[in-house]
Amino acid sequence: MGLFDFFKKDKESTTQQASLDAGLEKTKTNFFEQLSKAVVGKSTVDEAVLDDLEGLLVHADVGIETTVKVIDRIEARVARDKYVSTGELDRILREEIAGLLEDNNSGSSALLDSAGTTGQPYVIMVVGVNGVGKTTTIGKLAHRFHAAGKKVVLGAADTFRAAAVDQLIIWGQRVGVPVVSHGMNTDPASVAYDAVQKGVEMGADVVIIDTAGRLHNKVNLMNELSKIKRVMQKVIPDAPHEVLLVLDGSTGQNAFLQAKEFTKATEVTALAITKLDGTARGGVVIGISDQFSIPVRYIGVGEKMTDLQLFDRHTFVNSLFKK
Predict the structure, then answer these.
(1) Which of 5, 27, 54, 291 would you call most buried, defined as having the most Cβ atoms within 10 angstroms of its Cβ?
(2) Is 132 marked within a binding site?
């Protein structure tokens, strides 16, 4: 790697950090304004401060179960250290949240490194309800792989919505990658099969399959996703290698409910949490990661193609607590 490559990588890292900081601005502004009010006039972390902190974490959509874990961890530290000042609370909270994410194996996985190294396409099946940014996430994901020099094929298997098929085709044109589509009201499994087959024929590194996200009939959803998996396995026996669930971070507790339903319908192996830039509910990343013990792979912090970022727990927590 030459000097320019190092400079370019450092510049990209700086840009991504700025996007992350901006994307989490609403969450941290709201949280720390409230936290400052909770500790005003107090010198130590006492029961009243912890009660206020608990309310703030729940309000940030960290979730009740995860909030209780965080509070328990802080209470244990206060009991052990005997005296903890309110000035230390930010640091302790940062450390305990990072520790919780560590326990639940949340962090970026080097998909860019693994894609294409096995001699066959790395197949990602993307699931999620309509409106969470699923198709947009696929487009941005395709951009990441394509920019890294990977050959990408997209499969428009959300055939129940014409808009989803058309949108994916537009993303393919924008990014410069082929899209396999049979149009609306066609068999989703057939689209997935042809997309994987095309990926094999053209020596692609990655195949990304969009799927329908209808939760009103979970039995049909489960059957459909199972069928898509089975037909892809006729081409690549261990496909899909990743089942990526896309959740809208701005919906707060509703995102928890969606995660619960989709993990029942299929084996979800990774999460992408979108639209964090438009909400004060960024704590949902922490809660969902903790409660479902599924790695958060990507977070969406803006509209640009580069605003789908690999999730790194330390970078996320540091940005969340940056003032």
Answers:
(1) 27
(2) yes
Q: Tell whether residue 130 is among the known ligand binding residues.
A: yes
131 is in an annotated binding site: yes
323/319 Cα distance (integer angstroms): 8
210 is in an annotated binding site: yes
**Mean pLDDT, residues 66-82:** 88
DSSP secondary structure string, 166-181?
A: HHHHHHHHHHT--EE-
CA–CA separation, 279 and 9 (whole Å): 29
The answer to the question of whether 276 is labelled as a binding residue is yes
Range of the domain at 27: 3-103
User: Please, which residues have CB within 8 angstroms of residue 313's CB and are 6 or more apart in sequence?
Assistant: 98, 101, 102, 106, 107
Joined tokens for residue 230: 């089975």
Nearest to 204 by CA among 114, 122, 111: 122
Which CATH number belongs to the domain containing residue 164 in this structure? 3.40.50.300
On whether 41 is known to bind a ligand per the annotation, the reply is no
Q: What is the mean pLDDT of the chain?
A: 84
pLDDT per position as a tens digit, 115-161: 555 678 999 999 998 889 899 999 999 999 999 899 999 999 999 88
Q: Is 304 annotated as a binding residue?
A: no
